Amino acid sequence: MTVEEFEEFYAQTVTRLTGQLYVMTGDLHEAQDVVQEAFVRGWSRRRQLDRDGRPEAWIRTVAWRMAVSRWRFGRRSADAWKRSGAPPHVEGPGPEQLALVEALRELPAQQRRIMTLHYLCDLMVEQIAGETGLSVSTVKTHLSRGRTALAHRMQDPRVEEAPGA
């Protein structure tokens, strides 16, 4: 099946196949997702689809199997949650954490990445250099500049400057 033939096949069958899968699954969005994914998989097998002579059946079967697989996964996940109980309640971030995240967002991407690797992932400077492909001295420079930038952005508003300062 040539590219043009596959595109024509898609145009002629996608609506019909989506409707069929919608009826089978009862979920329009799920039907759209699995049919699109089946066409993506079919694209790489378009020559085989042509030889088999039943490309529409192949797409429908693949889409159905994906829907069933997703359904099974969802059911297993739900069963696991029932067995283990609801997850514990976790408080949302406080004002300090929100301020930190906002300040980090203002840093250049590379600096933010290095600060995160060092302070949140607890990586040593040498490990960061190995992971990022940067030199040790460049990592140290990013850490120094990042700390300086955060210090200016994260000044505690409750602390007033001394008069005349």
From TrEMBL:
InterPro entries: RNA_pol_sigma-70-like, RNA_pol_sigma-70_dom, RNA_pol_sigma-E_actinobac, RNA_pol_sigma70_ECF_CS, RNA_pol_sigma70_r2, RNA_pol_sigma70_r4_t2, RNA_pol_sigma_r2, RNA_pol_sigma_r3/r4-like
CDD domains: Sigma70_r4 (cd06171)
The UniProt record lists the keyword Cell division: no
Record's keyword terms, sorted: DNA-binding, Sigma factor, Transcription, Transcription regulation
Residue span(s) of domain RNA polymerase sigma factor 70 region 4 type: 98-150
Domain RNA polymerase sigma-70 region, chain residue ranges per copy: 10-76
Pfam families in the cross-refs: Sigma70_r2, Sigma70_r4_2
PANTHER family: ECF RNA POLYMERASE SIGMA FACTOR SIGM, RNA POLYMERASE ECF-TYPE SIGMA FACTO
Homology family: Belongs to the sigma-70 factor family. ECF subfamily.
Name by which UniProt lists this protein: RNA polymerase sigma factor
Species per Swiss-Prot/TrEMBL record: Streptantibioticus parmotrematis
